[in-house]
Amino acid sequence: MADRTIIGLVILLNAIAAGVLYQRFHDHPQVQLLESKALELYHTLLPPKTPDRCGAIKWPAYVLVSDRVVFPDGVRPGAVYISGSKIVDVSENTTVDMPHVLNFKDAVISPGVIDVHIHLNEPGREEWEGISNGTRAAVSGGVTTVIDMPLNSNPVTTTLAQLEAKKARAKVKAFTHVGFWAGLVPENAANHTVLAELVAGGALGFKSFMCNSGINDFGNVGRQDIAAALPFLKARGLPFFVHAEVVSPVETDPAADPTAYATYMATRPPKFEQDAIRLLVELLDADATPAAPGFSVHIAHLADAGALDMIKAAQARHPITVETCAHYLTFAAEDVPNGQTQYKCAPPIRGSANRQRLITAVASGAIDLVSSDHSPAPPSLKATDTGNFLKAWGGISGAQYLLPASWTALEGAGVDLLGLARLLSEAPARLAGLAGRKGKLAPGYDADVVVWEPETRTNTSVALNLHTHKLSPYTDVPLKGKVLASVVGGELMALFGNTNKQPCGTLLLKRD
Ligand SMILES: *[C@@H]1O[C@H](CO)[C@@H](O)[C@H](O)[C@H]1NC(C)=O
Ligand SMILES: *[C@@H]1O[C@H](CO)[C@@H](O)[C@H](O)[C@H]1NC(C)=O
Ligand SMILES: *[C@@H]1O[C@H](CO)[C@@H](O)[C@H](O)[C@H]1NC(C)=O
Ligand SMILES: *[C@@H]1O[C@H](CO)[C@@H](O)[C@H](O)[C@H]1NC(C)=O
Ligand SMILES: [Zn+2]
């Protein structure tokens, strides 16, 4: 009898927990109190049905429904059928004949965001940012895949052994899928054996600096190094990520106030970006190797809108892709307060007229995609005590805000929900060689999904910042786009501001 009562109680509680999940929490003040406990409750009340399931939903198959599903060709009411780690169907029929359905009403169901530019710094510099904290923050902001930069880990990722060390850690620590860019440096640029090993190890492409990277063992490449590597990259159809700034002497006022943002900005003029891009085009013009599909020179974090015409002209002859970052679309030099080094990055955030041109370029398709370039450092390296822009480490903390910041900046320029999904999911997937597998809500694709409310402000309070270091220019900025849920390979990893306890991310390796 006692047993039956307990079983009855468990069934009742299960029904309540499931019922709670079916609702839109924030619309129901009576259950709002449960919000912070939702995942935990859910864990307790719904014992694993599938031992394989690592995320908070334990059903092997379930359906996400809403009035606004971002289909590959438009936004309509729909149902996304998930089984295991895959999307098995995306239907316009929202009457679902399945036991496990989460109806998110008028929230938007989009493909999970792919951040192709993030610095996780592990192994070796976890005190700057690590895989657990970095990917947990990312997934809470709707990012379901990150592609890690070959620096600022220590060692950097320029050999197979170093890539393997990253893979081993990411495999057990990541809350998102994690792919890797390998480093292309003077030591390996001409050694195609080493480059081929990195690709065989799963690197999705390569990253170089054309100026000092700030990390001693990640040297910058010059004309000869790039010329030596291009035939390999083109023949293998690999993306070549470039930090495109070539530094030349600039006249600066030695008496200028180092806590003024303008003082820093003057040290890295638009000319640096333009010179680098001009050199890249020259090198492409000089290389006759046929480019296999997948190859592109990818201009990382374009900050100067003045370089766009040159890029456009060169794109008629060469595969060149362009990225800008959410911070270049959100902030403007005129507004950076004195001493606030959380705004320092390279190339620098420029003036508001330039920002507007970048926004227009993203909206028109002249810029392919938006990334976070999440690259935090401890407060001591950010020179928070003195506010000296010339001494502070350049790097902005913001993986968690990529989706809301991009949406807030671009919505007014005519980018709609489908356009945003193309910029944050589809184009990044294509760049990384993952088209056909990621970046869209379609049958056969990985079940990487973000559910969010474009009209609702997200809470950018520092208390909700999940990065290792809380210093971020996005703090308290009014951003639209509140993430309700993130699903990574079928695993529910974030719900109503809670993140799953287990890291359920997987490695994303190059498959030939
Ligand atoms: C929608 O799906 C339900 C459940 O499978 C089914 O009964 C109904 O006929 C479908 N409606 C349409 C218009 O296909
Ligand atoms: C390439 O690098 C490998 C590993 O460091 C080394 O053994 C080999 O000699 C190098 N090849 C050339 C052509 O430099
Ligand atoms: C944002 O989150 C903080 C920390 O949890 C909380 O104190 C604050 O009330 C929230 N703001 C809003 C507008 O909900
Ligand atoms: C993760 O972030 C928290 C909060 O900032 C910090 O205390 C912790 O040390 C970080 N974990 C790692 C492994 O860096
Ligand atoms: Zn970067």
UniProtKB/TrEMBL annotation:
GO terms for biological process: allantoin catabolic process; purine nucleobase catabolic process. Its cofactor is Zn(2+). InterPro entries: Allantoinase, Amidohydro-rel, DHOase/Allantoinase_Hydrolase, Dihydroorotase_CS, Metal-dep_hydrolase_composite, Metal_Hydrolase. GO terms for cellular component: cytoplasm. The keyword Metal-binding applies. One of its GO terms (molecular function) is zinc ion binding. It holds the Pfam family Amidohydro_1. Keywords: Hydrolase, Metal-binding, Zinc. Its EC number is 3.5.2.5. Belongs to the metallo-dependent hydrolases superfamily. Allantoinase family. Homotetramer. This is allantoinase. Residues 108-492 form the Amidohydrolase-related domain. Pathway: Nitrogen metabolism; (S)-allantoin degradation; allantoate from (S)-allantoin: step 1/1.
